[in-house]
Amino acid sequence: xxxxxxxxxxxxxxxxxxxxxxxxxxxxxxxxxxxxxxxxxxxxxxxxxxxxxxxxxxxxxxxxxxxxxxxxxxxxxxxxxxxxxxxxxxxxxxxxxxxxxxxxxxxxxxxxxxxxxxxxxxxxxxxxxxxxxxxxxxxxxxxxxxxxxxxxxxxxxxxxxxxxxxxxxxxxxxxxxxxxxxxxx
Length: 185
Known about the structure:
Blueprint: H1 6-19, H2 39-42, H3 44-58, H4 63-76, H5 80-92, H6 97-102, H7 115-128, H8 137-146, H9 149-172
Helix pairs in contact: 3-9, 4-5, 4-7, 4-9, 7-8, 7-9
């Protein structure tokens, strides 16, 4: 998560405009935006603490479920950087493109997910969108019915961590399109 210098960014933006960041040719895409800052380099102790927190919650949550949680929270938070990263990682780990795409409309596509995954997705939405007031008892109770208490505690922590990552990335305008799947595992 380092920021390139001005000339590298200009070259990258021009290349993205001419060739696309995914290697396609002949497209007429908008140039990449510039990140506001390299927050990880400027606050390395915070970044290391976040990485440590992420590792800790990862040990207590099923990786497939955690992937769905990270993608759903990132969708809700409009975090393009995290969406790019976590969808690439999920696809590389064997998650289906169909389940990832349907995640935006999971309520109408429930048949793509297990009851446990639905409970986690629903809890993710409730924790992520706190502007609705609070996490409803019914949502919490459905999650508690599918997760042992320690697992639920880790899930709540995982949802909190991805929301924190989203806020760092959105606020500093981190640029999506440069993640290599598995590079941060």
